[in-house]
Amino acid sequence: MADQSPSSGLPKATDTPSWSLQNTADGVCLNVEGAWTVQAGGTTPFPQDKLPVEPGHTLHIDATGLKSWDSAFVAFLWDVKQAASKAQLHFDEQGLPASAQRLLALLPDAPAEPAQPPRNNEGIFARVGDITLNGLTETGTVSELALDTAKGAAQAVRGKSAMRMKDLLLDIWNAGPDALLIVGIVNFLVGAILAFVGLVELRKFAAEIYVTDLVGIACAREISAIMTAIIMAGRTGGAYAARISTMLGNEEIDALQVFGIPISSYILLPSILSLALMMPLLYLYGTIVAIFGGFAVSMSMMDVSPIGYWISTFDGVELKEFIFGFIKSFFFASFIALAACRVGLKAGRSAADVGIAATRAVVIGIVGIIAMDAIFAVIANALGI
């Protein structure tokens, strides 16, 4: 039979791994020569249809020409062993080095079949019930977490909390002043876009002056609260989930529990409290910046004086709009922080779980904000606000 080399077409070097088949009286002999290492190119698989089908015969291995080998040689021999099994040949490994025989003995005769996904035979009612129970369990867990955090806040007021003041101040800085730039840019652009679109449409009805009411009421009542909450869900909520899941992976949470330190007061309370305190203030800041964005666009497109614009804004936007947005921002912040902390505590302990937890916290935060805003809209409509 012809000699086989992984580097076909190239001049055959002395260390180049090669193999050849030779018919013998009791079967087939596989001759291996050269250096069967990864660096020498010994990773070529053995063709599964190369061996003749001769039931009862033996496949011998002649390794007298083998100079060196590593795991690539063992992988090649495993292919040969599987091909011999298909050809109904007895695989005789006596000609191999003893260490290669021991490694080859650790491998099964054939690769394991891929595991089949488990079949879910549960009916629709069982699935709905399972989802309902999981939802109720999660709601209870989050409520308990919120209650523990509220108790920690009450203890902090009395000076008996395990919360460290420097942790609270650091979280306040990260959730407040450190976010002013991005909150300002986004709200300024949103206010400018709102004014531009409003002017284009209101100009058709000669009602351009009402753009001041449009920008002021929309930003104070809805837009600034939602945009600020979305920014903080992506920025601070994701950071909370990543931080807590990292602490979970490093077993810092386990260490705190072993020492009897309450997680809710030591870790969760500074995070939730800082965001709940800062986001309403960020909402007010964002609303003012958004109105300035609308003012900047209006001055370039409207025939109205700056003083007239601001007088029209103050007359059109009532104080209750700011109060409504301020209250919504507080609830948005509490939800974002609580959900992010809960997602972080539920995360796994690997590095990949940190990213998953951060992504999940952002998604839950944004969806929750939209859902809560819809609930607030219904309540406001019912109360006539």
UniProtKB/TrEMBL annotation:
Keywords: Membrane, Transmembrane, Transmembrane helix. The chain crosses the membrane at residues 179-202, 214-235, 255-275, 282-302, 322-345, 357-383. GO terms for cellular component: ATP-binding cassette (ABC) transporter complex. It comes from the Bacteria. GO terms for molecular function: phospholipid transporter activity. Residues 1-21 are annotated as: Disordered. This is ABC transporter permease. It comes from Acetobacter ascendens.
